[in-house]
Amino acid sequence: MTKKIFFTIALALLLVNSSEVLAQATLRKSFNLNGKWNVIVDWYGSGNAHDIATQKRPVTKTDFVEFSFDNSQTLYVPGDWNSQRPELKYYEGTVWYKREFDFKPQTNAQTFLRFGAVSYRSEIFLNGIKLGEHEGGFTSFTLNAARAIKTGHNVLVVKVNNERKEDAIPARKFDWWNYGGITRGVWIDEKPANHISDFFIQLKKGSLKELQGFVQTSEHKKQQVIVAIPEAGFKKSYTTDTSGKVALTASVSLKLWSPENPKLYTVKVYNAADTLTDEIGFRSIEVQGTDILLNKKPVFLRGISFHEEMPQRSGRAYGEADARTLLTWAKELGCNFVRLAHYPQSEETVRLAEKMGLMMWEEIPVWQGIQFTNPQILQKANHMLAEMIARDKNRCGIVIWSLSNETAPSPHRNSVLKQMASDARKADPTRLISSAFDHFKYNGNQILIDDPLSESLDVLAANKYMGWYAKWPSEPGNVEWKSNFNKPLIISEFGAEALYGNHGSKDTAGLWTEEYQEQLYKDNINMFNKISFLRGVCPWILADFKSPARMHAQCQEGWNRKGLLSDKGFKKRAWYIMNDYYKQLEAKPLQVKNK
Ligand code: GCB
Questions:
Q1: 540 lines ligand 1 (CB under 6 A)
Q2: pTM
Q3: Which residue has the CA at smallest separation from atom 3 of ligand 1?
Q4: Domains, the chain, ranges and CATH?
């Protein structure tokens, strides 16, 4: 067996066999398993999966069981374990979760278990039967539970492990908290045997009325499927091929989604046995020279990045209320765009952002230090990419899929990311592809974009910390950006740290003052105003966030302080600079420069 084949087989075993890629909330009636779950913290990883999953009990008088859920502690799902119990704050290891529930399957229905996200590795057992494994802490996955679900009492056990490893994505080092646990919701979905297992419906790239997409049924046979958008007076019947799939084509007159008018339509997709209903918006997004065109009009992306974290609670954000808090801040800043950093965030966040008129950049956690030489990495990254696109491909608010963040050019990295760009385009030809870079050449006061991967991208994205990690080569207003590519650029990160309420010098970084951060924002904006191909800006970051990599004793104490908001949600001085800049940009819409 060649090494490559061995790795392919090993990886296939690692990942859930999920043909039910449509892991989307609200499409069907679901039964949620959220709430208090029993847990066993497995400090040394010594628990026996079989015994724990089958809840082994003592039989004779000399038997005993050490790993038992009886009278065990509990944790809330959804939720990270780090913020729920003080002794788990820094924990990186295994926790066993158990949830018991009563269930009566519908006649002729198939039962699936859907996980919003489990960080980072999981093994899922229902009534003692192993349903599958999953790797990746930020993507949804679905398991067919038919062979294990019972009428009546059921016991679901999930082994969760969040150890950082070299061959994981992200790898061993990253600049955010390694929250572990079942961090998003868990649901049971019931579907008719011959159900709609997936569908994709968006506007074709560059068109304002041509639909593009597909419908896939679970039974692989020829059959009729119907797509209807009643409010737009559209209803069309299609016949699938023998694999149950059909390409969607149609011309429809629609009110287009935009930040100013985030219009969503009720869309129905059905066959003889099953109906799915979703709220979907339609817009076109494309690139023309150095312009980004939304619905054929040039747009400047007034962005902000944020982690899926509630600073005030020092924990993972979850649910719609947290999403609303984060997104309301983004709107207040004057944004029309958010960068969901550094991983796919919850479905609640994505759906709400779209409703609030925010365009989105969604990325997978291919973040620095990735083992590109490892043959498993392409498959793992592609699996995450596929899961991200599978869940969110009908969310028109998402305009950019991003493949990676700050990866150093090398032959292996270039070929992995190039392949991913091509696979992403195959899975979704309607959106733009990007990747955030941090390697640039300097020539006097000139910064040159020459990363070879740029050829494979639609939008260039630069993380550039002028005045913080990088010294100004000359006066900010004299710094020139050059690009070897005729493509739009987004400054996908810039910023500086400041401790809220800490006032003083505006020219000494090491004092963590609000004034230093404020001045740095002014200088960067001065530089941005001179970049002719700049089409978006995304400061790093909305709010201070927790990171064990940030250990300055007085100013950081485990917090990255680059937030425009403090860890309590208070506005730092730089907030107002950014807010003014966005107000000015909003007041003067862009004209098409590149024909
Ligand atoms: C970066 C990373 C981001 C870090 C940030 C920082 O370039 O993309 O994840 O948190 O810099 O604060 O250093």
A1: yes
A2: 0.95
A3: 175
A4: 21-192 (2.60.120.260), 196-283 (2.60.40.10), 287-586 (3.20.20.80)
